[in-house]
């Protein structure tokens, strides 16, 4: 089954299997694949599934363009296995004939079959939601407010990594700003998103 694996700076942020005849991608929430950054247009591009495994990519008049293997997409084009699609900071690898894992009961956004050895949570430390604990249970979990500040926390073999995905307000880690480069989190780190302070915690 055809699939898309999206990453930012080498950190996988989405893993989508193409079930539908047309899968849309853009910044607006009504898209099938939502990438929340201003360089992605509201309705950016679409993936058309033809037959069992043929996928055609079409740019939907995006502002900044859609690139396939570093070439701007000019017309509806059939994707080839291994093609890399570039949209803003995202790199999306297209795989044509990969089977969907069955061990997750259809959970298409899981990126790792290895169970986590440590349980991670983000605990809100200020504001009206102070005391709220949000578990980081998926391979990639996003936090923040779209259009303001959004980050992802990815669970990889080496630990947990936070990446700034979008929004004009820079997130802070222990009081220092960080960009789209993934940064590894350690126990008790303080993450601040647009004024909301959260403490990262690891438990066995």
In short:
The chain is mainly β and 204 residues long. It has strands at residues 3-8, 11-17, 22-26, 33-34, 45-50, 54-59, 67-68, 71-72, 77-78, 84-87, 90-95, 119-124, 133-136, 140-145, 149-156, 159-166, 172-173, 176-177, 183-184, 190-193, 196-203. 0% of the residues lie in helices and 48% in strands.
Explain how this protein is built:
It comes from Ramlibacter monticola. InterPro entries: Cell_Proc_Reg/RNA_Proc (IPR050923), FHA_dom (IPR000253), SMAD_FHA_dom_sf (IPR008984). There is one protein chain. With 204 residues, this protein is mostly beta strands. The protein contains no helices and 21 strands. Mean pLDDT is 83; it is low at 99-116.
How much of the sequence lies in strands comes to over 45%
Give the oligomer, counting copies of the same chain as homo and different chains as hetero: single chain
Low-confidence segments: 99-116
Structural class of the secondary structure composition?
A: mainly beta
The number of helical elements comes to 0
Total strands = 21
- Terminal CA distance: 36 Å
State the share of residues found in helices, binned by percent. under 10%
